[in-house]
Amino acid sequence: MKVLAVVSEIFPLVKTGGLADVAGALPLALAPLGIEVTSLVPGYPSVMDALADAVMVRRYGDLFGGPARLLQGRASGLEIAAIDAPHLYARPGNPYIGPDGRDWPDNAIRFASLAAIAADLGAGAVADFVPDIVHAHDWQAGLTAAYLRYREIGGARPGTVMTVHNLAFQGQFPAALVPTLGLPWSAYTPEGVEYYGAIGFLKAGVALSDRITTVSPSYAAEILTSDGGMGMDGLLRARAPDVRGILNGIDDTVWNPAADRLIARNFNGAHLAERRENKVALQARLGLAAEPDRLLFGVVSRLTWQKGLDLLLDAVPDLLARGAQLALLGSGDATLVDGFVAAAAANPGRVRCVIGYDETLAHLIQAGADAILVPSRFEPCGLTQLCALRYGALPVVARVGGLADTVIDTNEMALANGVGTGLQFAPVTRDALVAAVQRTVELWNEPEAWRTAQRNAMRTDVSWRRPAAHYAALYREVLAERAA
Ligand code: ADP
Predict the structure, then answer these.
(1) Which domain holds residue 389?
(2) Are 309 and 368 part of one and the same domain?
(3) Is residue 140 one of the residues assigned to a domain?
(4) What distance in Å separates the CA atoms of residue 343 and residue 356, rounded to the nearest whole number?
(5) Using one digit for the tens of pLDDT, what is the confidence trace for 3-15?
(6) CATH no. for residue 81?
(7) Is 387 found in the same domain as 244?
(8) Does the CB atom of residue 169 touch ligand 1 within 6 A?
(9) Are residues 330 and 425 in the same domain?
(10) CA atoms of 119 and 72, how far apart (whole Å)
(11) Could you tell me if the CB of 300 is within 6 A of ligand 1?
């Protein structure tokens, strides 16, 4: 089976968040199942650099205002098709945002191009590569199914899957762009690309794809409700029979405490004592008091409202009152940055915050912190808690979305059965977070129970093995339906 993944970022070539991790890992997990994935990505500078040996497979005289070439090649074990369109993608820095901190003004055509070429390939434009399934990820790829439906490309008709990694980002653009995007006005209907009087890229993908997936079963249920549906719940409810939740995994070779070169000392579930050296190293690196017996909470996160870190900021005094330390790594909203920087300044040795993006420190925090806090208001899947499980840092998470689906709360019965892997709290409020911190402290004070939870966490299968099998089954379901 051949699958064309359509995605705006892919690890390790270009990454701003979890989407890139998924795009980079899923093809590798699908390969052993007989599914060949080629990933269509915009030719940003970092992508073009990685594809020096690629071959040109198609030329476009005018792709939304400039010439373009489609290149195919391999990079980091991935089959990549890259759109070399300098007028759209030859820009340094963040793929979505310009140096002024705002979205690139031409994002509509930058990502319509991605979808248009995906549709072209889906319809069989490159004879050597005719996909059975076109799998679009997030709003940037959302128009793919619209181009397949409304542009009279002819040719093959692949199955279509739309994956929503975060419903908060929907890609809405003015209706006046319909002709600019090369769509007929007949596409601008409630059944097609129209969305609240504008063009909805993600909406189009949700309305027009054979299946819609999101990245956890709980989030799949939440987005069907008016509370979690972010304006799209009506449409999603109408499509409910075709909506699936498939958890993300993590790359367990990148995240492997037994072989990780970014941490101070390797360890595994049978050698938890060695783990302590990472805590010592983390405390030293950050300038936290060198007290390895003190409970150390870690955070690795974007600093945004979604992640609930304002609640944590409010709870810092409660956390300190219970004797804990806090190590935070993140970047994002200025108010949260300022708040955490001030909390660190007011509590030297107890609270340390590193503002920025730092892969190495992220690994050391996972390996050295005792618990990882994830107080998200909503969380489609979440990857940090999966890394935390693997590294024996107990995830303390809000009971929402993928967090609810991946962490087993160490409640009394879980303790009695020895099955807990972390702690959950609800509702997502400061008080409930403080109560969870209190429960974490109580568990910390029972070293035997703590170690059991750590070992359970580290035994959890957070790999792509099961998720990949679910995607494979979904693709087969779509193909069977097409054939019927
Ligand atoms: P989201 O995609 O919503 O930001 P996820 O938990 O799904 O959240 O994925 C975020 C990924 O990025 C995780 O692998 C996390 O460890 C990593 N990450 C987030 N912030 C940072 C940071 N400041 N430095 C290093 N890694 C980070």
Answers:
(1) 272-459
(2) yes
(3) yes
(4) 17
(5) 999 999 999 999 9
(6) 3.40.50.2000
(7) no
(8) no
(9) yes
(10) 16
(11) yes
